[in-house]
From TrEMBL:
Annotated signal sequence range: 1-19
Protein's UniProt name: Amidase
Organism expressing this protein natively: Pseudaquabacterium pictum
Keyword Signal in record: yes
Pfam families linked: Amidase
Keywords: Signal
Residues covered by the Amidase domain: 20-441
GO molecular function term, any single one: catalytic activity
Database matches in Gene3D superfamilies: Amidase signature (AS) domain (3.90.1300.10)
Length: 461
């Protein structure tokens, strides 16, 4: 069942919230030994919360009544330590209250069932976590789930929960959504408050949802919206519902396909996915953005400087407790000269202005979400665009230039684009101008309605 159909059944009284949550908990118990999406399952809390939903006089008005969901373990969950994928934070005091986005979903009847695996401190694209173990792709358990929100995508793909929350700094929603075959939404920077989540790069961090249908994604996003005074980046904008606009379709929208870097750094399966989406939407318009490679480099430098500075005290005192995949990079990052970061911010703002000009002539831009389908766990090198590149960093080649300037993106999953592995999904980014998440979701819904995109539950061996 989807989030929408589950909530409708609980509101109508044909399904209890407790039964919906018990089904989710049973599925997690039966599958997570193979997937490793969860780092904490909150059975007692979840069943108590479900009983409160069933007894609530507001149940018939709760838009997510009884819907189980889970969150990346960098969201605060009252009573447990906020790990952010690390060993170091395991000794921190438990969170005193839930993150603001968790509270917003539970206010509408959703039920939190657990916390999810991720790359340490959100610094990675693979969720090969040395502390919690690798998160496995439900569609092929030998392959990565993507990252850093790998557990968030894998839990949805495995049918453990219909909704999850993750974070995206350089691609950490879009990459795992692409590799695990789910829908994902990275909203505009500043759209959703990050209060109660562990930071990575404050000037680039976004939070957003994963789901198996566009209707679920849009509904969840709508319920997450609203300003928060405790997040200085969260814009003071009115709530703009999107779920009610999905049936407007993509007709009349000006749609362009990103060329240049976005085709040069994509393998044939990624290009096939984009071309299929472009054909389905009836567009042949090619859009070239200037200096995309420099925009990606700017995102890298800003990430290095802010991430290294954030963790410098622990790097000095307990470097041995970091995941080896992140430790050396954080140490190097702490040495980035300030002048480099200043120049990176200049490039970032210059690039944002140039992309804004592109949106004067188009409403949606299409690009691959990842350069390839999911590689095997442990892969160190990839061949992309005729180049041999490091695998872990290169999964974000096509996402970093977009999040660098905070644009909203819906990622939609396609299948059969890789003839050598037709069982593997790959995602396409639907990119809009700031604050136009509604356009991303409208196009995603149109593609879903055509049967071009879908997010089936994986058939685990």
């Amino acid at each position: 069942m989807t989030a929408v159909t589950t909530a409708a059944a609980v509101r109508a009284g044909t399904l209890s919230a407790r039964a919906a949550v018990q089904l989710s908990l049973s599925t997690i118990a039966a599958t997570d030994g193979r997937v490793n999406a969860f780092t904490a399952v909150l059975e007692e809390r979840a069943l108590k919360r479900a009983d409160l939903v069933d007894a609530s006089p507001r149940r018939s008005r709760m838009r997510l009544a009884g819907v189980p969901f889970a969150v990346k373990n960098l969201f605060d969950v009252a009573g447990i330590a906020t790990l952010a994928g690390s060993k170091i934070e395991a000794t921190a005091a438990p969170a005193r209250r839930d993150a603001v986005l968790v509270r917003r979903l539970e206010a509408e009847g959703a039920v939190l069932v657990g916390a999810l695996n991720m790359d340490e401190y959100a610094y990675g694209f693979t969720t090969e976590n040395s502390h919690a173990g690798a998160c496995h792709n439900p569609h092929d358990l030998a392959r990565i789930s993507g990252g850093s929100s790998g557990g968030s995508a894998a839990a949805v793909a495995a049918g453990q929960v219909p909704l999850t929350l993750g974070s995206d700094t350089n691609g950490s929603i879009r990459v795992p959504a692409s590799l695990c075959g789910t829908y994902g939404l990275k909203p505009t920077y500043g759209r959703l408050p990050r209060t109660g989540s562990y930071p990575f790069v404050a000037s680039l961090d976004h939070l957003g949802p994963f789901a198996r249908s566009v209707a679920d994604l849009a509904l969840c996003y709508d319920l997450l919206q609203g300003p928060d005074v405790d997040d200085p980046a969260c814009a003071q904008r009115s709530i703009e519902p999107t779920a009610d606009t999905l049936d407007r379709g993509a007709g009349g929208l000006r749609i362009g396909v990103l060329g240049g870097w976005f085709r040069e750094m994509a393998n044939p399966e990624a290009l096939s996915a984009v071309d299929r989406v472009a054909e389905a939407l009836g567009t042949t318009r090619l859009v070239e953005l200037p200096e995309v490679q420099r925009a990606r480099a700017a995102a890298f430098l800003i990430t290095c400087a802010e991430g290294g500075a954030l963790h410098l005290p622990d790097l000095r005192s307990r470097a041995q407790d970091f995941d080896p995949h992140t430790r050396d990079r954080f140490l190097a990052n702490a040495l980035v000269p300030a002048a480099w970061t200043v120049q990176a911010q200049r490039v970032r703002h210059w690039f944002a202005r140039r992309v804004a000009k592109a949106f004067q002539t188009v409403d949606i831009l299409i690009a691959p979400a990842t350069p390839c389908t999911a590689p095997a766990i442990g892969t160190e090198w990839l061949e992309i665009g005729g180049q041999r590149l490091p695998a872990r960093a290169s999964m974000g080649l096509l996402t970093q230039p977009i999040s660098c300037i905070g644009l909203p993106v819906a990622t939609v999953p396609l299948w059969g684009c890789n003839p050598a592995a037709p069982h593997l999904p790959i995602g396409v980014q639907l990119i809009a101008a700031p604050w136009r998440e509604d356009l991303c979701l409208r196009v995603a819904a149109a593609l879903e309605a055509q049967g071009m995109c879908s997010a089936p539950i994986a058939e685990l061996p």
